[in-house]
Structures are given as C-alpha cells and as structure tokens.
Amino acid sequence: MASDGSEEFKLVSPTISNEGKLPRHYTDEGQGAKKNISPPLEWYNLPQGTKTLSLVVEDIDAPDPEGPIVPWTHWVVANIPATVKGLPEGFSGKAAEIGGEYAAIKEGNNDLKVPGWNGPRLPTHGHRIQFRLFALDDQLRLANKVTKERLLEDIMEGHILGEASLMAKF
C-alpha cells in the first residue's frame, strides 16, 4: 500500500510477470509472424490528480562499446490520457488507427532514432528490460521529436506524481 493508505500505483502485463521472461514475440529475435510487437500493459491506482502518463522502456544492462553500462531505450510513449487503462498488444505505431483516446498518444524515438517499440536483440541474454510508467499532473507540451532524455530531464520535470515499474528478463 502507498504511504497514504491507498492502493499502490501499479504497472502490469497480462503476458509478462514481474521479473519474468520477456516472451520472444516482443523481441527482435526468432521466427514467427508476431515478432517485435509491443507488449500489452495495464495500470491501476493512478495517483490523485493524474492527467496523463508517460512510459519509458529500457534495457538497463546494455553495455556501451566503450565499457560502461548505458541503458538502451526500446520505447518512449507520452501524453497517454489518464482515462486510458492500458496499451493493447501491438499498440506501437497504431495510435491513429485505434483512434479515440489513443489518438492523442505520442510515441518518441527509441535509441535506433525512430519512433515506436524496438524489441531487444542482444548478443547475450540475461538483460533486464525495465518498463517505467510515470503519472503526471499535466498534458506535456511536446516537440515533433521526443526522446527519453528530453522527456526525463526537461519535459516531465516538476510534473511527476508517481512512478510504477515492471521488470522483464531477456
């Protein structure tokens, strides 16, 4: 429970258990028609005053060729209306097609410098993929190009009401 006695702000997936394995069809590896699609996500118990949500998904164990660990961004999603309770499987790239409240959602650039979900494809396995969902007190004013760095360091500063996370292993 949260410190105020209310239920905790939670991020879950019907297909990924916390600390569980990321299913292959959400990655950029392997065979099958359903590969490299964004996983389904759901959230519960938004902090009071939440107007929008933002999501950042990173491989937090990605090695830099120069040596240190530098998180690799797989997905950035911003301005998710607080009335939306989750993102369906395969949502990435289909906000306009799905329409309704989803049409206002903006996908930012991943570390391949393109918008949308880019599932992991790793030379070694055992990496942790962290899904971080931020509850915000306002709709964000976004430029055409949104990146994780701009979102976390500039745009969301002073607007975060809460954070929920989900960890998957790859």
TrEMBL record:
InterPro entries attached to this UniProt entry: PEBP, PEBP-like_sf, YbhB_YbcL/LppC-like
Biased composition (Basic and acidic residues): 21-32
Record-linked CDD domains: PEBP_bact_arch
Name used for this protein in its record: Uncharacterized protein
Taxonomic source organism: Psophocarpus tetragonolobus (Winged bean)
Disordered: annotated span: 17-40
A Pfam family this chain is assigned to: PBP
